[in-house]
């Protein structure tokens, strides 16, 4: 039997309501909070799936964020990719919370393409994700501004989303690593960043979300003080195409947030950018090292560069800080 999830859009249609997209805005107290959910791997109503969805619902209930971001691998093998995907995002929609997402390597399915899943979600009133330019690799490369707290305010921050794909060309696939974030995305980001900077009179405080980590995630663990745990290999592209360098040059991105490596949850700062893993949210994916499933929370403050981040666990408790890890290459400390 295929899963069937009634969407918020369908409920709106039945009530004779139009589907209107929401703009994101800082609260009156100057804060904007994001809940990141990584690697949910919803497979279709197995006991593990119900635990994963309950985790999302509990985090959203406890934290009441302004935005939920799913950083890839929302689904895995199962009876109905479209329904499995919708079941995950409905956790946010049913809570009245806008959501965005990027695709992961497990979201590519024979019975539902990335484009089809994006089109399905774009019809939902709480979805703020976009397909992005057709000239770029993948689906879901887009930018979302966060407006200032007053109605007439211009954008006060920006969020970048990238489809990191997993289809490296043969010449870039080394030792079986198919992870790949093409240089076209680095060029697109540089143009978007320059456009927003010019319009705003300076770099906006910005965050970036994608599924597969950059090579710099390994570098920061080896050479800088980090906070959190690393129990898995950093499965990043075998070749570096320069997206991180473009972000450093752009001067707006303060932090990047990824998933993919379920047993890593650390963050560290390199060249002024905090490279952050989320906490694995799905009970279907393998997690070692005793890490509990959970969600990474991120809080921005209007007019400030920087952000707070903490972990909220499946049992409802919070981890306001993570253990310190000293660099393994002391010469770079």
UniProtKB/TrEMBL annotation:
Pfam families: Metallophos (PF00149). It comes from the Bacteria. It comes from Paenibacillus hemerocallicola. SUPFAM superfamilies: Metallo-dependent phosphatases. This is Metallophosphoesterase. Residues 33-215 form the Calcineurin-like phosphoesterase domain. The lineage of its organism: Bacteria, Bacillati, Bacillota, Bacilli, Bacillales. InterPro entries: Calcineurin-like_PHP, Metallo-depent_PP-like. GO terms for molecular function: hydrolase activity, acting on ester bonds. Coiled coil: none annotated. Transmembrane segments: none annotated. One of its GO terms (cellular component) is cytoplasm.
């Amino acid at each position: 039997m295929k899963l069937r999830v009634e969407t918020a859009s369908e409920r709106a249609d039945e009530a004779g309501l139009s589907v209107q997209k929401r703009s994101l805005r800082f609260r009156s107290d100057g804060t904007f909070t994001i809940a990141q959910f990584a690697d949910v791997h919803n497979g279709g109503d197995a006991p593990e799936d119900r635990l994963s969805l309950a985790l999302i619902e509990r985090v959203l209930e406890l934290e009441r964020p302004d935005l939920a971001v799913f950083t890839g691998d929302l689904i895995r093998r199962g009876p109905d990719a479209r329904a499995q995907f919708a079941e995950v995002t409905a956790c946010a929609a049913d809570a009245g919370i806008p959501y965005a997402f990027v695709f992961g390597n497990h979201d590519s399915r024979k019975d539902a393409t990335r484009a089809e899943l994006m089109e399905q979600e774009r019809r939902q009133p709480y979805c703020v994700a976009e397909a992005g330019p057709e000239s770029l690799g993948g689906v879901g490369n887009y930018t979302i501004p966060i407006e200032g707290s007053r109605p007439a305010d211009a954008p006060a921050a920006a969020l970048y989303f990238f489809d990191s794909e997993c289809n490296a060309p043969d010449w870039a696939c080394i030792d079986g690593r198919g992870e790949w974030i093409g240089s076209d995305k680095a060029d697109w980001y540089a143009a978007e960043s320059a456009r927003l900077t010019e319009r705003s009179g300076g770099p906006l405080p910005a965050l970036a979300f994608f599924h597969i980590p950059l090579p710099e995630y390994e570098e920061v663990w080896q050479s800088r003080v980090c906070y959190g745990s690393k129990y898995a290999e950093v499965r990043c592209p075998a070749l570096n195409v320069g997206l991180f360098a473009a972000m450093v040059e752009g001067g707006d991105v303060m932090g990047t947030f990824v998933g993919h490596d379920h047993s890593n949850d650390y963050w560290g700062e390199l060249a002024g950018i905090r490279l952050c893993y989320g906490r694995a949210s799905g009970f279907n994916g393998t997690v070692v090292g005793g890490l509990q499933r959970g969600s990474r929370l991120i809080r921005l403050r209007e007019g400030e560069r920087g952000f707070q981040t903490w972990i909220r666990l499946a049992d409802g408790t919070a981890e306001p800080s993570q253990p310190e890890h000293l660099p393994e290459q002391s010469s770079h400390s």
